[in-house]
Amino acid sequence: MPDWPTNSASGARTPPTTWSIHARERRAGPERGEGHRLGNCYVLIEPAITFLAVPYGCEIVIDLPRSPGYRRTVTLSDAAAADAAAHLARLDSIVPGQVNAAHVVGSAVLDDYHPGTSDLDLVIELTHEPTEADLAVLLDAHLGAGAKVECQYLRSGALGTPNPVGSMINEGVVHFACKELHAVTRLQLASYATTLRGPAPAIEPDVPAAQEFCRGNLVDYWTRWLTGGMRIMLRYAPEPVTEQWRWAVVWVGLGPARLWHTINTGEIVSKCQAGELAAERWPDLAEPLLDIVAARTGETVVLGNAHGRAAVEVGRRIMAEAGIDPVGPDKARGAGSADPGAAERARQADTDAAGEAGAPN
Fold first, then answer.
1. Of 25, 39, 76, 270, which sits 20 to 30 A from 277 (CA to CA)?
2. Whose CA is closest to 267, among 163, 181, 184, 160?
3. Residue 157's closest CA among 191, 97, 199?
4. Each residue of 286-340: pLDDT tens digit?
């Protein structure tokens, strides 16, 4: 019998009129849903489901999948929190009183932050639209200890406007008014971000826009890796791979997998989780993919040609699942070609390159 409260008037033990239940969410912390008494049942109202009738006296735990666009409760790791606070302190020292809001996105909010390896991704709202002169000053915060901080700077309140344009500082380079905040960043700000200062971003989650962006990124960016530069790796990478090639293997092995998962589910996951999910999807590639995941986390793992081949192969399979022909942006987007045999020849050339290195086809 549940430990219901005693009615102060009658002395009888009666069910409460409201109650709470913890629901476990896959790869996320517990979320609380609130229920209300209705007839002889409690009705649970939770973001991932509409109604759930629970008979009196039942003790249940609900296992819920993530719902796209639902704001997660995110806790930064100690390392990520310390690095974010340190960058905010640098900004306050350089431009005192000008940082109205600071939001953490990227690997730090996806439980995949590895100091010295991961970039720290921030979105900073300033009191005014930053000028080129302002960014030259802000650049000082990205030197030394701040070298691994990738930051978008924009005017306070701009996140609530359609298509906000920010300026970026990344790897010591200033990109002034470079581009709109893309749909994945906006979805992260709406659903995954941690706000260190100021109000949380007033952004409605747009999952379809994020999925479309991911598909476009597969076409515009990753086809070049999977049909160009990575073919060089297949033929000429040393065994074991050098540190430069090691970075490329991890980049290619995990990057497309993140996009694939978002396209399929609307959920944003970390690079490591994406690699694990791809290993589950394609068991024949699981061993090298899980090695690549381990390498990203900083484990001492020797990567070789087999890992490079697996990275390319998982990218090819992701492209195939997405219905993308990896022969270049125009053709992949469905544009017509004057040469009907071009796509087949490109696929054959890629297969030949893989075959030279013993890649699975």
1. 76
2. 184
3. 199
4. 999 999 999 999 888 889 888 888 998 999 999 999 888 765 433 433 333 333 4
